[in-house]
Amino acid sequence: MTTRRIFLAGLAAAAMPKPSWADAGTPAYLSAGKRGEGYVLHGLDENGSTLFALPLPARGHAAAAHPIRPEAVAFARRPGTYALVIDCRTGAGHHRLTPPDANQFNGHGAFTADGGLLMTSEVVAETSEGRIGLWDATSYTRIGEWSSGGIGPHEIRRMPSGALMVANGGIATDPRDRTKLNVPDMRPNLSLIGPDGALLDQAELAGLHQNSIRHLALVPGGVAFAMQWEGDPAGPVPQLGIWQPGNAPVLCPPGDAAMFAMQGYAGSIAATDTRIAITSPRGGVVMLFDTAGQPVATHRRADICGVAASGSGFLASDGSGALWHVTDAGLQPASSGGPQWDNHMVALAA
Amino acid sequence: MRWILAAALLSATPLHAGVPEALARIGKGYQTFAAATADLDTAAQASCEGLKPAFDTAWDAWLHVAQIRIGPVEDDGRALAIAFWPDPKALGAKAQRALLTGDPAALDPERFAEHSVAARGFSGLERLLFPDAALPADPCPLIRATTHDLARMAAGVNADWPAFSDKLAYPGGPGNTTYLTDLEAAQALLTQLASALEFTADQRLGRPMGTFDQPRPERAEARASGRSLRNVVEVLKASRDMALDLHPEAPQTEAAFARALALVDRLDDPTLGSVATAQGRLKVEILQNAIREARAAILSEIAPTLGVGLGFNALDGD
Question: Do B314 and A259 touch (CB under 8 A)?
Fold first, then answer.
């Protein structure tokens, strides 16, 4: 029997505006990290101050923010067994996504622009064949999957056109311990996938098939992509490329003096209107390029990895708990004493 | 109450007593390196003959600080230019051929510093002093340009080091955005050691070892000057000394280095050419494992006492 009190509460709820990101303090970034033995997801403001910190069940990697509701999906580190949908106002995990039995999450995901669909980067565990998992973003139920167009997909990004860009890293791994199984004949690619799951375009790197394409940032007309070199460490190869679908990908080597500064390994990438930043925790560097792919600056900081656009520059995170403002001129501390920031800072749509 | 007081006193003592000792050793090492390369340059400007002793002394001096890849050695690609190896695409030899036969004005000091890092430094000099085939022109002008460039870079590193050393010695100080805490300073030095030993095992020994079916003795570093094994020895000694600076009471680390150095003594193979035989390759592999064990000992014994480990993200690999 409906009492008057409950009836009134129901009316009040109906009259309430739908929850928005402002209700979560309007974080600008999400980043996973480790504090002590615990894993966390932080919401950060423009200056890197923590607005909320939520516990995670195991080491996180990246996150995807719902374009409208104050909801984030935190993805487990590869090979991932969970993705957690978190209400960023309260810290409550209200759905826990588990990949289908044969699949594993690969650390990244993206929503469609209307927020109706969540797409997750996955592999078939036994073969490392790439899948894009499809989830209804209201009920968070599995509704299907697409081929990712390659082996070992990692980051995926929604393009302004609505298509999905997939970085297929090309590396087949042991589903239990991440041992790489096919490095001599790996074949990474970039795959552009339409709203129906059809492959619209694909790019490979001629002569550099051991350069695993793993991370993506949107740039006008396409993506900038960051790579990890699996070949001879003595061979200087670019870690940055730019692909505008319809054209061949363009590789962007650093200057002569910095050719090994990243130790062949780019961990994250982000772009502004005028700059592309790639980071290397192995080399302890963040490198800035202009949008044509010409090197501009190299800045050093140990274990720096997460990076996201921030105004005309970037905000970057390191494994010692510090956040940094990054400009052509150098690094300036934004905050310190945070958790050991994990690989990625995810910028929330403004 | 007494318990609490004792704990507070302990935590107020400097956490990383070994850092200043390690920094002092590095500073002294750069002074020696600058002096040795200046001597080498002086000798070369006088005569391009008989340079081997000065060349060896200078390269040894570099190897005593070569594990440090932070600070002024990283400016302008200096560390790369000082010792560009490995170079599987022979970028250095190609660039040098152009310099040997091209416009002599390209050897002017200001212009020389702009040339490819692959063409300069000890590896470049070695190809001129110990050529494996006839050179297309008199190498003496390029030898002199290279020794001058080496001495210039070494002087620059030596001059710039004290300011950077202060950043490590006084982390978190005003304007110090490089190192925020003493843990970070200790971690930076420890990471350098671990990387240098990894490079020595994987590259200095691993490249000539090749695979069991296809050893590649011709790929050894500094083969032409007969220094392949000597380079390994000097790096091991320097790494041991710095590790023990950071934490003097490290018996496992000390024993692991002693074992690796004893294995070197028994190798009697200056260019590592013995990897061409199965038995010889096995001996080098045993040395390679011993170096990896020394690295592991540093990480298991010294790192915890410093309260540091290798990078959180650097190790993740994703």
Answer: no
